[in-house]
Amino acid sequence: MFKSMYARISLVIVSLFVMVHFQNCAPQKEDSVFDSMNNAGTIEQIHKDNDHGKEIPTEEKTAMEISKSLLDRSMIYSLFIDIFGPDAAVVAALNQLRAERAVFGGPCSIYENFKSARNGFKMDSEAESCANSETANNLAAPVNPVANVLQQALVNDVCQQMIGNAKTYAYAIAQIKESPRVAIPANSSANVLKLFRLFYRGKPDPDSSLVNSLQVLVGEPASHDGWKMAISTTCVSSHWQAL
User: Most exposed of 159, 167, 185, 213 (fewest Cβ within 10 Å)?
Assistant: First the structure.
C-alpha cells in the first residue's frame, strides 16, 4: 500500500517537473528583439549628440507588448480530431470547446456553413445556428484569441476525456507505436518524439532533458498507464496552441 502511494507521489512530482520543462522550452526570441531595438535607440541618440554638439533630451520609451497568435476553436478542434481520431467528435468536452467562441476565438465563418455528405453538400446545423446567433458568446468572439484561464481549463478537460476514452486513446497510441504488431509502444526517445510532434506541429524538437522526463512518466517497462500520463502531460502543456 505504502509503495503504491509513494510511486504515485513520485509520478506526480515528475509530471510537475516535466511541465516546468515545457515552460522553459517556450521561445524566448522576443527579448532579443527588444534588446536590439533599445540598443538601436541608444546608438541613434549618441549619433545625434555628436552631430549637434549638445545634449538632446531623450524621450521615455513606451514598452511594447506583443501577444502570440493562438489557435482558435476550429483549429484546436481539428487538431484533436487528427490526434485522437473521428470518435473524438462525440467527446462532450471537445464539443463544448468548439462552441466557446468568446473563449477560444473564431467567429462564425462562411467556410464552415457547409459540410460534405454522401448526397452532396448540406447545411451544417451548428454553423447555421452560429450564423444566426446574436448571443454574447458569438458577438464577443475575437479574431485573434489570447490565452486565458478558462481556455486552458477547457483544454485540460478535453485532454482528460480523450485519455479516458478507450477508442480515442487507442487511436492516439497507434500513432506512437513503432509497429502495429506491438501492444504497447516501447519506452524510447523516438516514440516520445512521436508523441511530442503530435501536438507541437512544425515546431523544433525538445531538449533531451524533456524527452528523458517524459520517458520517466512512461516507465520501464512501458505501460498504458505510463503512456496515458505522458500524453496527458504533453496535451495540457499550453505552448502547442501558439501559432
Answer: 167
